[in-house]
Amino acid sequence: MNNGFLYPVFSFTIGILKLLNIVEGLKWIFKYFSKKMNLKLPVYAVERIATDLFIVLKWGFMLWVFFCSSPSIFLEFVVWYFLLTNIYTYFYYHVWNVSSRDKLDEIRLKRRFLSLGLAFFFSVISFATIYKNFYANEFIWKDKNISFLNSFLFSLGNSFTISYEFVKPNSEVAFSITILQTTITFIFVSIILATSIPQPKN
Asked: Are the beta carbons of 122 and 58 closer than 8 angstroms?
């Protein structure tokens, strides 16, 4: 009880959520087969490869849902899962896991900055997908034009609290989702960004 009871509960919850993150399972699989195949790669290199592959796959999936798929409860669940784990992963490795910040080199700092950009725009495209594919009826679309461009520009504008006149929330659900996106953007831009800008050593 040296740290009270709120911190241990929150820390335990963060640890449990890590177990539910697909990328952690992918890292474990890559490390297992790397060892089995005797590739002699450093652990951090294997984890980076697994992480990069996961990023490419989730981006591919999200773009497919955004442009090609039809609405379904299952796809909506998966989109929300990737959106929330995207936020969690960045929070865990770049804010919560303080020990990882003590061993930063130039490449790792630059990867953090790259990760920030990818995570931020993944959030934008995820919300655009949610607006267009799953909650289109909760919004007013000018000329009833529920298009890829309108949903993306509305998501991007909402991220920076800029009004986009072609799309407007029309229900409590719509307002709740847009406020959630603004809150997430605040986390990325005003809190996490401070620990992510590359600062190479002299």
From this structure: yes
pLDDT tens digit sequence for 45-92: 899 999 999 999 999 999 999 998 778 899 999 999 999 998 888 888
Burial class (CB in 10 A: 0-12, 13-18, 19+), 135: middle
Residue type, 62: M
**Residue 106 CB partners (closer than 8 Å, separation 6+):** 198, 200, 201
What is the rounded (10 degree) CA torsion for 193, 198, 199, 202?
A: 180
Nearest to 118 by CA among 93, 146, 148: 93
Q: Where in the chain are the domains?
A: 6-195
Closest Cα partner for 54 from 18, 26, 80, 30?
Answer: 26
